[in-house]
Amino acid sequence: MSMDLGEFSIIKEGEAEILMDAKNKVFYNKSQVNNRDISIAVLRTFIDKQKEEHEARLSKRKKTVTKVSEKDTSENVLEEAPNGSGINGEIYNGDHEVQEDISHDEDEPCGVSEEVVKATVGKGPVEPKPPKVLEALSASGLRALRYAREVEGIGQVVALDNDKASVEACRRNIKFNGSVTCAKVESHLTDARAYMLTHPKEFEVVDLDPYGSPSVFLDSAVQSVDDGGLLMCTATDMAVLCGGNGEVCYSKYGSYPLRGKYCHEMALRILLASIESHANRYKRYIVPVLSVQMDFYVRVFVRVYSSASAMKNTPLKLSYVYQCTGCDSFHLQPIGRTIAKNNSVRYLPGFGPVVPQDCSDCGKKFNMGGPIWSAPIHDQEWVASILADVKSMKDRYPAYDRISAVLTTISEELPDVPLFLSLHNLCATLKCTSPSAVIFRSAVINAGYRISGTHVNPLGLKADAPMDIIWDIMRCWVKNHPVKAQPPDQPGSVILAKEPVLQANFARAVASLSKAQAKKIARFLPNPERHWGPKLRAGRQITSKHISLLGKEVVNGLLSQEGGEEPEAKRQKTEDPNST
After folding, report:
1. Positive or negative CA dihedral for 325, 355, 470, 481?
2. Which segments of 361-399 does DSSP mark as H helices, in order?
3. C-alpha span between 442 and 424 (Å, rounded)
4. Which end of the chain is more exposed for a tag (fewer CB within 10 A), N or C?
5. Phi, psi (5° rounding) for residue 68?
6. Domains of the chain by start residue, with CATH
7. What is the pTM of this model?
8. What secondary structure letter does DSSP report for 256?
9. What mean pLDDT comes out for the span 341-370?
10. Which residues contact 463 (CB under 8 A, 6 or more apart)?
């Protein structure tokens, strides 16, 4: 191809290569390789699951057709036997005759069409159509190119952007990657929201990875994805989702965040609740298959279905959260409940409140947040399939070590326990030395409850034990490891003033270590290089104040290429912070 490559640098990731200029015209972040790798792994599993579901549907239809065939055969035999017809001949040729009758029947019994009968009975199972993918915010197009080149069985990939420089770069990269991407990937200069609204239920996969919040794209995205399709969504506005600006989070996502140790998992659950809310407006609902908090963002993978009756279960999947301001104990208040009577189900408001006015452990008040998604955020069968796929083709994932570690940790999480405890936080409240995680896990297991780690925080522990059991275990620990006297009005003093009802057993339990821990598999890896995190928005001029984001060497190199001069106002602000 005729192109001057002198002004571009070639960046290779996976099997795709892109041309990038040094002037920050088009956004690219190297650290998002984790995001792209895990998306490719989920997409491969989605295609496999689609094939399995398609074969199951064909098998079910084939059984239906067989039943109809047998029914029609028996009716024909009963009608013709009294007239002295040759029954044996009808029986021997029954299969062929019944197929002819069914395929030409105008009524199409049991909803089985002529094409389905021919495909099911005559020609055998047919392959499902390749999934069509929409990347709503493509920038350089790297993600779309990797999908097209690395995911087997994928269909057309449509890459959108409303920035002219990004679309030009994307089209340039499509040509640069050869005939495969030219045939599969197409790029359009348009507003993603308008495009998705005008293409309802057209895409089997919709990928949202915006710079910042995805909230403005959710309404159109849940309409654009097909029934049973996959919606992949990233949110990088973690300061908002984790409680730094609660009022902004409520305006964007419809939920109020709380600043607990579990704030990153709460961010995941707020995003899921927001997607569910948008889907419900169109008689649709979501089923999460994987939800991940990595680096500086959250990423969720959900399947979208249409069902007015199943949509009624949404209040059962959402809860408000009460968090104590003194001891950080938290309790969940479900929004709805059901009553089953005979074969009918009644949907009613949830019972409440689940907590008194003051905390029963330390006597302080509660903050209330939510609503959040309190149902499972992963499908463990999907997680196992994704992890097996990643391990089987580790050479094809540039970030294999990181994503396999995250998926391993997720596979060991308790799926039905929302949020988590922080052992260090519990000890900070009581001003005591911390037991090891193994000892604390053993005490919870010996008390008859379940406990696991969490992929969000290496110090986090998910347990289905109520908070009074947790505090009883800590009271027993403090009895064996006394603390200094504290003022009587402190939350820790109030908690320790009560005698434990449960006598904790700290003997080492067999299940106190997870399988990954027992095998010493790395689960939380350090960043591979410095300044591994968010990058500057495309189009902004790089100055010396961006050293914390990009690194000193990168900024100085870019400034020297541009003549070593910053804008005067920027340079004064950076060099002389006391100037007026």
Report:
1. positive
2. 380-392
3. 16
4. C
5. -60, -40
6. 416-519 (3.30.56.70)
7. 0.84
8. B
9. 92
10. 414, 417, 420, 421, 444, 449, 450, 451, 452, 470
